[in-house]
Amino acid sequence: MTVYDLDSATLATTYDTLSDSQFKRGSELIERLHIDQSDVVLDVGAGTGRLGLWVLKNKLGATGSKLIGIDPLEERIKLAERKNTFPNGKFLVGSAEDLSFLEDRTVDVAYLSAVFHWVPNREKALSEILRVLKPGGKIGITTGAKELANETVIRKTLDRVLAGPKYRDRVNPNDYVSSKQGTTATELIKLLSDAGFELDEVAVRRNSTYHESGTLLVDFLESSTFGNFLVHVPEELRPSARAEYIQALDAIGQGKGISSVGFGISAVARRSFDLGLPACNQRQGCGQGEELVSLAGLRTRDSPGAWRLQATGRNPAGILGLISEA
Questions:
Q1: Domain spans of the chain?
Q2: Which end of the chain is more exposed for a tag (fewer CB within 10 A), N or C?
Q3: What are the φ and ψ backbone dihedral angles of 115, each rounded to 5 degrees?
Q4: Quick one: 9-148+177-208+264-325 is in which CATH superfamily?
């Protein structure tokens, strides 16, 4: 079970320094959301504010509309506020499930970058985001692909360490935080559809990461999970598990750093102008390069380096499959 009170100022600062890979994927998501200077933006799970401040600098500007960032981790919000120099940016302690500080239909764009898997009540969070979005307002999400969570060097190396005689009778590898917290592509599509969103695009993307040493990789894993990385290991065994894991990672890197490939989900959806009409019927055309699937307004779009998902039945949940790698 994820523990939300393990965070610290040190973990927050470490994450702010080492989160290049998540920042890169977050900025790519922002580009697909096409944020305009006049848009009111909600950053859900803003963390240390790294991505939100980038949006303020590069999309809104100091004279543009406002960005509100929320996160339940107080130390990360404190750091975001210390870094913030924009009068139209504000970072608050808050949760995705309770946006009561916002009126209905007041937000143009909401995004959850590398955070959706941490939200305890995803249905409630999506309901709240739908409520505060204006008609036509967009939501963007990046999150881990649960169905592929075990297919990484990072995870396979950890499982090999924890299969050792010291740990194997006391640790269940399937209790690892990423295994418990993730969502599959099909689950995400169903959640968005059930909440009332019109899906613009969804992709399972291959993500590459690099860390100079095993220690820095573990520092990132600990800080990005706000202290939950080895929470499934008995407390008295965590120091030795951590040390052995770092040693195993450095053996793989052979002094050249550790490269790993993982898989994440990226999705963009919107609040429809009229929930009874498919999104493409509400404006002239659907744009070049878009393949339309007239099922509950679901659309797919080819995206370089991504897997395409296509509906093959009436209900878009549970009938989506990976087709090809573009």
A1: 9-148+177-208+264-325
A2: N
A3: -140, -20
A4: Vaccinia Virus protein VP39 (3.40.50.150)
Q: What pLDDT sits at residue 178? A: 76
Q: Nearest 5 degrees, angle CA 92-CA 188-CA 233? A: 70
Residue pair 68/42 in contact (Cβ under 8 Å)? The answer is: yes
* Closest by CA position to 45, among listed 8, 89, 97: 97
pLDDT digits (tens, 9 = 90+) for 56-106: 999 999 999 999 999 999 999 999 999 999 999 999 999 999 999 999 999
pLDDT in tens, 289-317: 333 332 233 333 333 344 334 333 333 33
8 Å CB contact between 225 and 12 = no
Among candidate residues 185, 122, 206, the one with its CA nearest the CA of residue 311: 185
* Strand ranges in 45-127 using DSSP code E only, listed in sequence order: 67-71, 89-93, 107-113
The set of residues, in sequence order, having a beta carbon less than 8 Å from that of 281 and lying 6+ positions away, is none
**What tokens appear for 37 in the block?**
């200077």
DSSP letter, residue 305:
T
Close Cβ partners of 275 (under 8 Å, ≥ 6 residues apart): 196
Distance CA 7, CA 13 (A): 11
pTM of the model as a whole: 0.84
Among 96, 98, 111, 112, which residue's Cα sits nearest to residue 39?
A: 111
Sign of CA dihedral 144, 149, 152, 156: positive
CA distance 291 to 300: 6
SS3 for 161? helix
